[in-house]
């Protein structure tokens, strides 16, 4: 496999496919944070587009669209971070990249015009208006703070221009590593409110004088796993602990009255991917009540009013939006669908009016679109489909929910994509999600890396949700704790067995891929089963001992494995792919990003070494400027092309039949 893959037929095919899906420069193909006020005629969102070539990567910009639909209007040329509407809907807070390399800008927009702005040092990660609309709080990451795995898993500060031989120096300390709350009164300069040793992961106003925040006493990414809730005085910045969870917390939202706090508690594996119990803290009594949201793992929370909490989440294969009434202690499900999902990383929607919601919806064969939901019915406001997307998607098969029994009898769910017109067993790609506490959904095929283009070439694709996945309650998610690589791996193998038994796939032509936890599984499964004929681990873990000592999140493996990383043997040895040979020769393409701090590239090297010592062909591909899971461009396109080349070389084209070499 050559270093420069751009002249290959596979690269040209993948590049052409994604060019059709994503559209010409300037076309908005995706977005997030759709918001609006029931009394306003305009909605706002952050849209994604390519301003140059695909190789240059996408840009995020602020857009406006009429609530009744119509063309999109770009409002700013600055790289967008966050947006937040004022409580009365009259003003929009817009956080964007500033003029300097370490500076961000906060702007206030009214009637499509900037009426106030302030610059600050750091990266703005969250915005929230005070209930009276007079102040903004900002959660600002220091210029050298690590990003979460879902955002690349690397340190923001890149090496400055200097003499080539000068070393990189790491001290594990520094003012630029912390996350702080800043306050801006829309006049003059914004000011930092909190200071080390308080690190703020999330924050929200609780009334006009206090702020509820998710905090830790250390800045390291792994300290998020031990974070707790604190109440911060909006004048002095002093903080006191108000709730210490058993597991993890996310989606912290203070109530407008200052007496209640809504948040999600859950057993989690990744910051930013919290799915679990809607929890309500009474600040007067300190009591926490778990809201009954029947069968729904909640993933986003917003206050619709002082007594109603709007939520979104997942229940099995369904994406759900609804409300919880504090007065009646009842959850009402407004919308649920298997045919569509919403949210960038997890289901997310924004309340509008007394009972409606806004979100950006999508499905495997439907490109993202702006949607308004009322009483369970959706109105499409604007499609983000590129002109050539429909033709490109038409050949990529159809998705459907799929269930099968695990070896212990537990029903496992997932999503299955069957190629159009398949009448005989096909090759199979198993794509394992990250996490492990996450889930595959009915997401747009443009997010599938090589999956969709393989389906267009006659492959079946299985997206399994083994135990540990979200959407099936706390017990199901927690089942992976202390057993990662155990029953969850058998769940995945059981899905392959079920497809073989039904005559849908060729037992001799099964490949496995995935990123992060999915990368670990892609390296691990060939050592546990002879079902697999090829493997493509991306950002994997090969050695849990060295992972613990080199990752930005050593707390992760301490949660997922029961033995100690400071002792020999146990699960740190038994569940490390690099310490086990493959059951049979499994050609392995292993890829990683050089600046990944979640699963450092040395893990991919250990997987590569183990594959070679198993007698398997193995290629190691390290992208020098890429972070976790290779989500940036052009790495995303290049990695998809290499997967296509690797699988068709070692498993063969879909029509090659059994025994192809």
UniProtKB/TrEMBL annotation:
Pfam families given in the database record: Peptidase_S9
InterPro entries assigned: 6-blade_b-propeller_TolB-like, AB_hydrolase_fold, Peptidase_S9_cat
Any coiled-coil regions, as ranges: none
GO molecular function: serine-type endopeptidase activity
One GO BP: proteolysis
Superkingdom: Bacteria
Gene3D superfamilies given in the database record: alpha/beta hydrolase (3.40.50.1820), TolB, C-terminal domain (2.120.10.30)
UniProt name for this protein: Uncharacterized protein
